[in-house]
Amino acid sequence: MTDSANETNARGHRVITGFSNPLVKRIRSLRDKKHRRREGLFLAEGLRILTEAREVGALPDMLFYARGGLDHPLAVELEAAIGDAGGEIIETTPDILTKLSGKDNAQTLIGVYRDRLVPLAEIDRDTAGIWIVAQALRDPGNLGTILRTGDAVGAGGLILIDDCTDPFGVEAVRASMGAIFTQTIVQARWDEFGPWLRRGSGQLVGTSLQTDHDYQGVAYDAPVFLLVGNESQGLPADYQAACDLLVKMPMMGRADSLNAAVATAVMAYEILNQRRARSR
Amino acid sequence: MTDSANETNARGHRVITGFSNPLVKRIRSLRDKKHRRREGLFLAEGLRILTEAREVGALPDMLFYARGGLDHPLAVELEAAIGDAGGEIIETTPDILTKLSGKDNAQTLIGVYRDRLVPLAEIDRDTAGIWIVAQALRDPGNLGTILRTGDAVGAGGLILIDDCTDPFGVEAVRASMGAIFTQTIVQARWDEFGPWLRRGSGQLVGTSLQTDHDYQGVAYDAPVFLLVGNESQGLPADYQAACDLLVKMPMMGRADSLNAAVATAVMAYEILNQRRARSR
Lengths: 280, 280
Fold this sequence. Notes:
By secondary structure, the first copy, chain A, is α/β, with parallel strands linked by helices.
C-alpha cells in the first residue's frame, strides 16, 4: 500500500500506513526534547486525556488513530471538534501508533498539541492560593504527578526552575493525567524568579532537614510558592536561604526524606487544609 | 580472560569477567519475577541502600562490585560484615553490573538478598498505629514509593492483596529507597485478609468518591489499615463495602483522583497528624 497524500478513508481522513512516511518520522521525532522545542509540539495519548484537554479548550493540531479509535461517542465528539477547528485527523496502523508513542500498549488515539509554556511575567499570582515551584526536578513521572497534584489542590500552576525534566515529554504528560492541560506551566531561571516573586505578594516556602518548624506548626499565607528541590540533592543552601519559611515533615522511620512528588503533595494538602479551616 | 572458579583478586574476592558465566546468568535471571520467587532472592543496588539494609541487619548473600566499588569507607564496612556473615563478594566489570541491574548507569555495588515475605499470621498489628494495604497495585514505582512513605509515617508494613506488582522487582526496590528492608511485607488474598483483620482490633479505611466524609472530618483509631486501590480502577465496590470508614480528599481541580502513592501519603500523614495532635 502506498501513502499517496490523496488517500482518504470513508470518514474523509488521510490514511498513513508506511513507517517511512515523513509525517510519521516527524511526529516520532517529538519523543526528543530538542525536536519538541523546535516544533513547539508535544504528544498526548488516550481518549480520556484527550477528552479532558478538549473540555478545557485544548485541541490537537493533529490526531492519529488506528482502527476502532473513533468508535467511542467521546471520540466522535473529539473528531468533530478537531474538524471544526481546522485540525487534521489521520488514520494509521496500531504498529505506527506504537512507534509514535514508544509505548508497548499504545493507546488508540494520539494527539499532537502546541506546547503551552507561559512567561513568568504573564502569571497573575493572585488567581490561586498556591503555586508549585520545582527546582532541578529530574524525574518525568514525578513532574507529571506534581502537575496532577497541583490540579487537585487548586494550584495556579507549576514554575520550573533550573534544569528540570521536560514537562512535555511523553512520560510526564502521561503521569499528569491531563493536568498538563489545566495547570499553567512556566520555565524560569532562579535569578529571574526571585526578583519577580518580590515584586508582589507571596510566601516562599521550602522543606529542609535543618529547621525546627513542623510543617503543621506554621501559618501559610496565600499566595504560597511551594519550593520543591531536586530528587537526590534537595534544595541548595542558597535557595533555602531565600525562603520566607522552611518547614519539615515528621519522619518516624529510618529515612530522612520522601519521594519528591509525595513530599509536594503532603505539603500542598497542608496548605490547602489551612485555607479550608479558615473558611469554615 | 577465563573465569576460573579459583581466580581471586588482591582482596581475596572471586573475579568474574565473562558475560556467559553461569552465576552472571543466574543473577541476571532475577530480573524476572518467576526466577526471584523460585530462588527467594532479589537485587538491591547502590552503597546508600545497601548500607541502610546493613543498619537494619540485612546483609546480602552475594555482593557484586566493579573496580572502585569498595573504595568508600562504608563499602569497606559492608565488605567486612558480609565476610563475617559468610556471604560471597565478587568483583566484576561495569558492563556486567549494568547487565545485572538492567540500568544504564549501574551503581558500582549490587547486593543479592533473601526476600522477606512475612505470613499474615505472623504480624503483630499492635506494633504500629498504621498499616498500608494495597489492592492490585500495578506500578512498581508506586509500590516502592508507598514503602518509602510507610517508613516515614512509622507504618508497620505493607500488606499486598490480589495481584500486585512484585515488591522485590528492581524498580520497586529502587523507589523504596531502602524501605524494602525496614517495612514488613505481606502478600495475602482478600478472603484471608478480611477474616484475619476481624480477629483483632483494627479500623479498615478506604478512599472513595462515593462518600461525604472528608478525610479530615473523621477520627482514625489505631491500628488503622489504610486500603489503597488499583491505579486505574480504584477500590472494587465490595472492598469499599468492607471498610469501616470511607473518606475522600478534597479535589479542587478537574481531576477526581490523585496518583495512588500520593493519595496514600496524604491519607497516611493525616492519620499520623491526628495521632500527633492527640499526644500533644
